[in-house]
């Protein structure tokens, strides 16, 4: 993933990051979950259910840096690193945009805190690397 972090219209850092994202709702293989750098819930949840899910699921594996799940009313909830802190992200990124969790991971890899996403306006632009 190649991502540009920072506010639009300003000089932004470019982050190149390779990672494994696993849909924790669809993966029945515990090894797949253990190998994930990013765990993503594909099924939107209520806020209370998302908090429970993040407490149970992720980030669980030794290399997992982020877990994120969409909310039924819009927005996402994410948990970065091994700490218990959760971040509600009131963004307009729809649940089917699975790349959003990867963008959050790139944000963390760039050394930025999840709380910084509250001031950002996440936008997903997909360009295929294959012509």
List keywords for this structure.
131 residues, alpha/beta, two-stranded antiparallel sheet, 3 helices, five-stranded mixed β-sheet
Polypeptide structure, described:
With 131 residues, this protein is of the alpha/beta class. It has one domain (19-118). It has helices spanning 30-35, 47-57, 99-109, and strands spanning 2-5, 13-16, 21-23, 38-40, 66-70, 76-80, 86-89. The model has no long low-confidence stretch (mean pLDDT 80).
Number of strands: 7
Order of helices and strands: EEEHEHEEEH
Biggest β-sheet: strands ordered side by side in the sheet = 3-4-5-6-7
The radius of gyration computed from the alpha-carbon positions, rounded to a whole number of angstroms, is 14 Å
In short:
The chain contains three helices and seven strands; from the N terminus they run E-E-E-H-E-H-E-E-E-H.
Map the helices and strands.
Elements: E1 2-5, E2 13-16, E3 21-23, H1 30-35, E4 38-40, H2 47-57, E5 66-70, E6 76-80, E7 86-89, H3 99-109
Parallel strand pairs: 3-4, 4-5
Antiparallel strand pairs: 1-2, 5-6, 6-7
């Amino acid at each position: 993933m190649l991502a540009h972090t920072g506010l639009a219209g300003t000089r932004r850092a470019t982050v190149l990051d390779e990672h494994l994202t696993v849909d924790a709702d669809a993966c029945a293989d515990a090894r797949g979950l253990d190998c994930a750098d990013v765990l993503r819930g594909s099924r939107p949840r209520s806020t209370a259910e998302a908090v429970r899910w993040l407490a149970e699921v992720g980030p669980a594996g030794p290399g997992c840096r982020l877990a994120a799940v969409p909310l039924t009313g819009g927005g996402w909830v994410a948990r970065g690193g091994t700490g218990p802190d959760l971040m509600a992200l009131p963004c307009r990124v729809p649940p089917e945009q699975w790349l959003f969790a990867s963008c959050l991971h790139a944000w963390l890899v760039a050394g930025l805190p999840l709380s910084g996403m509250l001031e950002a306006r996440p936008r997903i632009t997909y360009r295929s690397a294959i012509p």
